[in-house]
Amino acid sequence: MRFAQLVVGPAGTGKSTYCSFMEKHSQIAGAGRVCRVVNLDPAAEHFDYEPLADIRDLISVDDVLEAEDLHLGPNGALVYCWK
């Protein structure tokens, strides 16, 4: 049986910490289960693990903020990335 968890929440609530723990836990006590983490946060800065896929490879908030033709702030850049 396959299953998934979608971890969402405001900044600073421990989403990355939780994902890191779950990945380590599956390696130690996972009974053969494989845990894969996918990052869909274009504003994430660092991880204690290597995501299977990372949205920042396609677009990041920093890239949008540096784009002079867009003239967006941090919130606008995040919304732009989500589109």
From TrEMBL:
One function term, GO molecular function aspect: GTP binding
Keyword terms of this UniProt record: GTP-binding, Hydrolase, Nucleotide-binding
Keyword Hydrolase: yes
PANTHER family in alphabetical order: GPN-LOOP GTPASE 3, XPA-BINDING PROTEIN 1-RELATED
Family the UniProt entry places it in: Belongs to the GPN-loop GTPase family.
Known function: Small GTPase required for proper nuclear import of RNA polymerase II and III (RNAPII and RNAPIII). May act at an RNAP assembly step prior to nuclear import.
Protein name as it appears in the record: GPN-loop GTPase 3
Lineage: Eukaryota, Metazoa, Ecdysozoa, Arthropoda, Hexapoda
